Amino acid sequence: MNKITIAIDGFSSTGKSTIAKELAKKLAYSYVDSGAMYRAVALYAIQHKLIDDNVLNTEKLIESLTHIKVAFQYNNSLKASEIYLNDVNVNTEIRSMIVSNAVSIVASVPEVRKQLVALQQQMGAKKGIVMDGRDIGTVVFPNAELKLFVTADPLVRAKRRFIELQATQPSITMEEVAENLSHRDLMDSTRTHSPLKQAEDAMVLDNTNLDRAQQFELAMQWAMERIN
Ligand code: CDP
């Protein structure tokens, strides 16, 4: 069967990764969470005290880029890929609120983006990939056969993410989550370099009132139209 590239972009907590994973599973494609890569670099910046009170030492981070190795490794028992920062599994750590609050600052640095985009393009060189993020349809894979732009009502998104995070971070509050999402959405869509924006040829998927099965059906239908 003809293999395509599927690029999924959109605001935080719109369920991009859920759609992406389901499509990848059904099509036997690989799935890459590009946000996890930016989160891993943000974690490195935190660990090395390159970010303090939302102020990033950009110059030091750029100098450090040659020492930052971000890679995915498949975990057979989880049946999913996990992210490694310099050979250490950081899959859980990158979801912490500390990382969520730092990631958009780190992701606005062009040199960071250049390094990660090159890696992402390598991963997708043979097609048969579903990647989600903010600039996948616009910058990473501008020729992707299917581009989705996922949106949902901000309150619905904050509730979804709050429930998801409560499992691992019981002290988290709804206000904290909502504030982080709106702050990141603003930073991601207004940054100078590769801002989050809808690609001209993207299909818009608003899942405010769609359940998982309904949104999957729609996305799968669009994918099959392109594959055939
Ligand atoms: O929390 P959520 O799943 O919505 O976000 P994520 O996909 O984990 O991405 C975390 C952050 O990384 C975003 O808020 C962006 O600042 C940045 N990012 C980016 O700039 N470009 C991408 N392709 C993916 C993520």
Protein architecture, described:
- The chain has 228 residues and is an alpha/beta fold.
- The chain has nine helices and ten strands.
- The protein has helices spanning 16-27, 34-47, 58-64, 97-106, 110-123, 136-140, 154-166, 174-190, 212-227; strands at 5-10, 30-33, 51-52, 55-56, 70-75, 80-85, 88-89, 129-133, 146-151, 203-206.
- The strands form three sheets. Strands 2-8-1-9-10 form a five-stranded parallel beta sheet.
- β3 (51-52) and β4 (55-56) form a beta hairpin.
- It starts with a strand and ends with a helix.
- The model has no long low-confidence stretch (mean pLDDT 97).
Overall 3D form: globular
Q: End-to-end span in angstroms? A: 8 Å
Helix/strand class = alpha/beta
Order of helices and strands: EHEHEEHEEEHHEHEHHEH
**Reading side by side through the largest sheet, how are the strands ordered?**
2-8-1-9-10
Number of strands: 10
Low-confidence stretches: none
Largest sheet: 5 strands, parallel
- Radius of gyration equals 17 Å
Ligands, ions, cofactors? cytidine-5'-diphosphate
Average the pLDDT over all residues and give the rounded result. 97
Count of separate DSSP helical elements: 9
Residue share in helix: 40-55%
Strand content: 15-25%
